Amino acid sequence: MVNDHSPSQKKTNADELATQVGNRLQYRRGQLRLNKSAIALRLGVPLLVYEAFEKGEHSPSAIQLARLAELLEVPVLYFFEKLPLAEAKRADDCGCPTEESIVYTVATAQDRLAAIAAVFQRLPFREQQCLLSIADALARGVKAGKQ
Amino acid sequence: MFVVHCRCACSWRQGRQAMTIKKVIDDNGNIWSADSRELRSIFHLADVDGDIGCALVRNVGFIAVARRGTSASIQFNPRTVAPTALAALGYWLAQGGPDRICLSVLDTVHRQSHEMHPTPQGALRRMQGLIDKDRQRRGELPFRQQHAELRDLPSASVLSAVFECWRATAGVFCDDAYKGPLHQFGGKGRYLLVHARHDAGRFEIIKAGEGLLIPDKISRARLVGSTLEDIPDYAYGRWVTHDYRQVLEEQWPRFDHVRAAILWPGTGRVVRRYSRLLLPCQSQSGERLVLGVSDKLASSNFELEAA
Hints:
A: mainly alpha; 434 Repressor (Amino-terminal Domain); B: Beta-Lactamase; 10 helices
């Protein structure tokens, strides 16, 4: 068998693939709106390890990737397809929305009220109380700034 | 290094050139030399002469691979292939990035076909297509459809109104001409307009009617700009894409009755029964489009059959 690929080229390809798999993981998880902790738990790895997969710092093993495909309801070869540009951009949005994207998607006061109400209803009681405290503190901060 | 020559019975009989199998990827993602003694002993085949690679590929879900220079060969069975073996194959291909792939498809009844693919990406896409096709044939996907004739389009319906508009405009889509028919009979417009992109035969959604029955608001908001395959239910997206592609290639309308259990985030699978008309169109600037319009199910026979 001829091996015409240098170790450095292999490493580059492996790095590229790790990034690609990470982007796909992040995009798909965002699409299904699952959190990292839940996926890590079901995969049986610490959260930090799963985060390293998404960042492309490490590649999941073949067994882990097959399990991830099952958890995210996609065929395993999904992770080897290059993410189209628009979706790649959106993958970033899924992970951490920028201020610009927030402003764009929730443009009017009415939309913002509806969005916060929808999020609020999904939270457990304790987190609802925390959010109220944060909102109150923010509002007081803004008021103090104006004075 | 040992080299094992595998000759499948069918290709041997047909006088085709036999494929050299050098490695097999098992259902745990491990890569073995095809004649590994340890592998044989695992399957209690230590005393069996000859190659066991084909049998492992055909029946146990392994994948056989070989690389020669910038070419690689892959042998697999779409019915039995293990997801972990596919994952390991993806990593194996990434190590070298071969320029050409010979894909050999085995089935469980001793048939084998060979295809050449210019890129690993193309070969992997084809493999997934074959796996999907096999699952569809065995009824494993939660989607079913019944093809219907265009003459059976229900009269006085959105579908027939859009079809008449399509004929009148010779398939050239413009908002003004189609707006009326798409919103007739009190409908809010249950349609998708997709644009055939050049990369990997994907379809980008460029318009989505307000009347589409999507229970998840966020998925609904993200629809325009995404590809048909990349809706949250990936399997459904791929299944639908196949029909859109057929309409685009044949440039002929298609009418179906569909029953699909579609996965949406937050709601789980939602069963939808609908009749769907797909029309090949083009924009005024000549871009290739497909318009998909849905309406309530127009066949009670299909409803009974699918229930």
